[in-house]
């Protein structure tokens, strides 16, 4: 597996699957979730509504992942995963690692070979970037997956520098 880092916008990535840092409602939000729904168009929300009407009536649990169409994005699928909110008192690292593992598992089920990840939980959910980068890179490196190309798309140069130092 090849791991690459990009300083940019995940909605512009030409990959098989783009991972969304969503929330359990799957109904959209701010940050990368807002950007993906804006650029991808209403088809993505429509697909999320169908998931909620079916198997995911209570929403998606933290650490899990599920795929929808990517709508108008230059990707085939969006894999929505729910990162944990950072906590100083409870160690939720395993849930953050699970987001990466489960996303790759869903990617495998779609036969996706290239996947773009944002730095899950490092925005609104408050996870410190350095620790998030360690968990992201370790988990992806150790994953048993057929995905060949994993791209971490970091929105700003500070986040990029942190991932670069860890890689
Ligand atoms: N491309 C790549 N990375 C981005 C982009 C983008 N277009 N936009 C933001 N980031 P966040 P979370 C970075 O807050 O912390 C939503 O409301 C951002 O700089 O998007 O997992 C959901 O609905 C940060 O480093 O996700 C949830 O309620 C990283 O993406 C909640 O936020 C993640 O920031 C999830 O919070």
UniProtKB/TrEMBL annotation:
InterPro entries in the record: Macro_dom, Macro_dom-like
SMART domains in UniProt: A1pp
Name of protein: O-acetyl-ADP-ribose deacetylase (Regulator of RNase III)
Domain Macro residues, every copy: 1-167
Pfam families: Macro
PROSITE patterns, A to Z: MACRO (PS51154)
Residue ranges of the TM segments: none
